[in-house]
Amino acid sequence: MSSFWSIWISVITLGSILGCYLLLRWCLQNHTGIKEGDDMHHEFDGIVELNNQLPRWWTILFYICIVWGLVYLVLYPGLGNYKGLWNWQSSNQTIKSLAESRAAVEANKTNGVINQYDREVEFANELFAPIFDNYYKQPITELVKDAEALKIGQRLFSQNCSQCHGSDARGQRGFPNLTDDDWLYGGTPEKITETLINGRQALMPAQLDAMGEKGIQELVAYVLSLSDRPDLDQAQVDAGQARFAICAACHGQDGKGNQQLGAPNLTDQTWLYGGTNKAITETLTYGRNGVMPSFKDTLGEKKIHLVGAYVYSLSQKN
Which residues, 6+ apart, have CB-to-CB distance to 287 below 8 Å? Predict the structure, then answer.
């Protein structure tokens, strides 16, 4: 963090605590001009308001909270780049294995660092590493028969994948449905694992500059005809077929796509961004650049193996 932001955060934090203290002191003073304990001349339903101070127990508790906040900021990090007298930190590196977590904990002990996260990772790895090791030795085609393995895979999916693909894995606009048999890059265990480890970067180039609006409408008509849409202008379809040559390099002459390139099949009813005239026009006009992030560093290959087994099992039920 730069010195500017460190000072900025420190000033705001300490200023807020000072503001709370000054506000409390102000509220403890009598600003009414009425002697403490006397009638404030406010009455409602027989209840008379008296000019009383804030409850002493509440005032003391407020002071304790202010002192506690200052002590915390002295001992622990909270003021920009200041690390605190106890030199505590959540973690200083990415832990990928049991050996690395142990080494990190020992290094931190040597350096006088209280590193809670690394200790927790070490404990978790001690507890769960043998389980992941055992499942990693089994092929995905066997893991799909193991209910416990799939439960673990489902939990990992819910934590890391459901934000895009949905809790039921049926996807949404721009994010594929993982429960059917339509796959952009292949639905074998090997391809699913490859996608999870390396991620994917899709690229559908915009065609507006190359074709113009008229050309795009002709191409849209032809693409719609591939999935047997009714009520199309045949003249536009024929003109669009000639223009489709520029698309055939990825989608194939028959429009059935290419999993090596991640080019979708245009002849079925499965559409990632929508199969209406408007949606396809938008795709051709502006292009698409979908990203599937890599989970290699986030989960590691052993957990990815279980997620892959769960994802693979979803399409095998259909």
Answer: 203, 204, 205, 206, 207
**Per-residue pLDDT reduced to its tens digit, 23-67:** 999 999 988 888 888 888 888 888 888 888 889 999 999 999 999
Write down the pLDDT at residue 59. 96
For residue 152, the number of C-alpha atoms closer than 13 Å in the C-beta half-sphere is 19
Handedness of CA 226, 231, 234, 239 (dihedral sign): negative
**Cα-flanking dihedrals φ and ψ of residue 288, to 5°?**
-135, 145
217-245 residue pLDDT tens: 999 999 999 999 999 999 999 999 999 99
The pair phi, psi for residue 168, each rounded to 5°, is -95, 5
Burial class (CB in 10 A: 0-12, 13-18, 19+), 280: buried
pLDDT score, position 35 = 87
pTM: 0.67
Q: How many CB atoms lie within 10 A of CB 251?
A: 21
pLDDT of residue 100: 59
Structure tokens at 104: 């990190």
In the chain, how many H helices and how many E strands? 14, 6
- C-alpha–C-alpha distance, residues 91 and 265, integer Å: 45
- Please give the pLDDT value at position 51: 85
Contacts of 40 (CB under 8 A, 6+ apart): 32, 34, 48, 49, 50, 51
Tokens of 116: 């809670």
Distance from C-alpha of 236 to C-alpha of 234, rounded to nearest angstrom? 5
Rounded Cα gap, residues 84 and 67, in angstroms: 16
184-214 burial: b if 16+ Cβ within 10 Å, else e? bbebebebbbbbbbeeeebebeebeeebeee
Do the beta carbons of residue 13 and residue 20 sit within 8 Å?
A: no
Percent share of the chain, pLDDT over 70: 91
Residue 256, pLDDT score: 95
Which whole-number Å values give the CA distances from 75 to 15, 21, 30, 193, in the listed order? 18, 21, 37, 45
